[in-house]
Request: fold
Amino acid sequence: MFTYCVFDLDGTLLDTVHALWVSVNLTLDHFGYSPSDKSLIRKFVGDGYRMLMKRALLYSGDEKLEHYEESLKVYMDFFAQHSMDGVKPYEGIPELLKELKRRGIRITVFSNKPDAQAVSNIETVFGKGYFDFIAGEKAGVPRKPDPAGVFRIMDELGERPEQGIYFGDTNTDMRTGLAAGLTTVGVCWGFRGREELESFHPQYVIDRPAEVFEKIIT
Reply:
């Protein structure tokens, strides 16, 4: 029996691509680079904001990453202002979460987004205390795909790997969930496609949140 779920944030629970796109483009403009296309942001995200800016700068022509270190601070300043721009839950997510809670299954978040912004995103959209635990990027906890953050959640909840489901939308998430020993589910409504998710052999790949109760928790 499953007793808890671990959700990725960006591209899994919340559609945050507009906020990320705005923050990246303001940062690129600060250094005199042209704006990036929103479709590129979907490819750049998933491994934390440092890698996001590294990929964006390299694509924009900063081949030696001369602006990289400064761009991290600039990006975070812009992101602090725009982290909620256009952010909304994906269709079917509120209903999924409500049903999980009704069944007594605890819900948590593990994100490579900085911890303060992860907490802000979740609590602004769903309310404070709605999730049982929220873990964003912070010092001392390795970023995904290292499973340490999932182990931290298990320790906090007193849970075991075989009792949990991990949901995510990128290859980083598939590697994280599988490494932690959780039943791993790729979601196709996020930033990447089915082909990428299936190539990492998660136990399930789904197209709609409602499929959780059709295929996984019955």
Summary: The first helix runs from residue 17 to 30.
